[in-house]
Amino acid sequence: MEYNCAKCERLVEYRTGIRPKKSLEGRSYRNLPVPDFGDPEAWLLIIGLAPGAHGANRTGRPFQGDGAGTLLYASLHDVGFCNTEKVTDFDPGIRLSGVLITNAVRCAPPENKPTPKEFNNCRTHLMETLTSPDISDILCIGKDAYDQLCKALGIKGLKFFHGLHQKFDMFRVHCSYHTSTYNQNTGRISKASLSPILHKIIEFRKGD
User: Fold this and answer.
1) What DSSP assignment string belongs to 167-202?
2) Is residue 34 within 8 Å of residue 104, measured between CB atoms?
3) d(C-alpha 101, C-alpha 70), whole Å
4) Whether the predicted pLDDT of 208 surpasses 90
5) Residue 125, pLDDT above cutoff 90
6) Largest CB tally within 10 Å, which of 16, 68, 150, 204?
């Protein structure tokens, strides 16, 4: 992917201007598009919305560095996809097995809200990732990720819901509520509600 992509002027202006919040003063921020992270031969692709301003935008890895990632990686560890349970920041020792993580938009957007044009500009990167011959399953973390996957694959007519498991052509598509800190604090998502989805994905895989 283009690590210095400048297609979206608003996102470039925003990401380059992000400064450390008080609790992260003195930490370096990457402030660039965030590439995929994980197993290059992954069979499960996980799609999020976009890098968090003080999470992936800082660390350079999807879902690493904020509360959304803490829950996601803990759940991945729970079912054997990740070699460590506590992922609270960038760690060069983190390894994923069978899993690749990406985002529908690869630059941090203001208020975590990409525009339709920004989604469109970044869809080529998502479609490129989807060309991997090893990927059989896709887990969408949140409705926005699901909507962008549907556009990339030309899927119509099936609404997002937590726990969705559906076969589309060459892919099995699965859905979860987003692992955002807000959703965790309101009780909408937790490891107890995410891990069963991951277990189900593994069951589908074993049934092949």
Assistant:
1) EETTEEEEEE----HHHHHTTS--HHHHHHHHHHHH
2) no
3) 14
4) no
5) yes
6) 68
How many Cβ atoms are within 10 Å of 206's Cβ, its own excluded? 7
Write the CB contacts of 8 (distance below 8 Å, at least 6 apart in sequence). 107, 117, 118, 121, 122
Confidence of residue 36 (pLDDT cuts 50, 70, 90): very high
The pLDDT of residue 174 is above 80: yes
Q: Of the candidates 57, 129, 137, 51, which has an alpha carbon nearest to the alpha carbon of residue 98?
A: 137
- Helix, coil or strand: residue 72: helix
Looking at residue 3, what is its pLDDT? 66
Instruction: State how far the Cα of 191 lies from the Cα of 10, in Å rounded to an integer.
Output: 34
What residues pair up with 47 in beta bridges, in sequence order?
Answer: 102, 140
Is pTM beyond 0.70? Reply is yes
Which CATH architecture describes the domain 9-19+36-206?
3-Layer(aba) Sandwich (3.40)
Alpha-carbon gap, residue 29 to 51, rounded angstroms: 12
Q: How far apart are CA 79 and CA 199, in angstroms?
A: 7
Q: What is the DSSP string of 116-183?
A: HHHHHHHHHHHHHHTT-TT--EEEEESHHHHHHHHHHHT--S----TT-EEEETTEEEEEE----HHH
